[in-house]
Amino acid sequence: MSGATRAIPPRVVLVTGGGSGIGRSVARELLARDHRLVLVGRHRKTLEETAEGYANAVCIQADVTDPDAVRDLFAQIAAGPGRLDVLFNNAGVFPPPASIETITDDSWNSAWAVNVSGSVWCAREAFRLMKSVGEGGRIINNASISAHVPRPKSLAYTTTKHAIAGLTRSILLDGRPYNITATRLDIGNAATAMTGAFVDALQADGSRKAEPTFDPDHVARLVANVVDLPHDIAVPELMVMAAGMPFIGRG
């Protein structure tokens, strides 16, 4: 029937970096919609704060940069819920500002380990579990508008977020036979602790200016709406940003 809505049962959703920022906002929106959540992060206390008041959440302390820890995480999911419908690959870091000539070994390695390797390890294990269950699935990768154009002195962050674009497209292709889709989520200036620097942000012309931000709860609702979709609907890209921020024409 035209206009009819298909009822979607509660999903089992894994949220990495669920203890703060975008991860916390998305997790609490999904919990409010009665989805079953696995919250993952390095600090159990912040995960438990995210899950407070909800019985449909499990908190697991894990470091996504450690492939063995990620394998153990998914072994716990396989032994518990026994399935995973959606992975929100959200854990990430914003390194100190650096250009190509000033980037340090440690800063580069840290950014790559969390933003790229961690996302790949989680996506790999999620894909394997989704394929084994055989009912499809969805992997949402938190990228950034930096996956399109850089900010000044953002070499590590920009490069890693371009890598997330490649990861998402590869999952879309490799997942086609199994009804496993992927979404690249590009966010611009959501008002989290990570974006506190945008009150005095360096611009491409060398000046500094305050940039507009927006409530991350709007991101949470968008992500939750994608989670609620049937697995036979793909959303390859999703962009949301503060109106008026210097993205169009940046550079």
UniProtKB/TrEMBL annotation:
It is an enzyme of class 1 (oxidoreductase). Its EC number is 1.-.-.-. It holds the Pfam family adh_short. Residues 11-233 form the Ketoreductase domain. Gene3D superfamilies: NAD(P)-binding Rossmann-like Domain. GO terms for molecular function: oxidoreductase activity. Signal peptide: none annotated. Keywords: Oxidoreductase. Belongs to the short-chain dehydrogenases/reductases (SDR) family. This is SDR family oxidoreductase. It comes from Ammonicoccus fulvus. The lineage of its organism: Bacteria, Bacillati, Actinomycetota, Actinomycetes, Propionibacteriales.
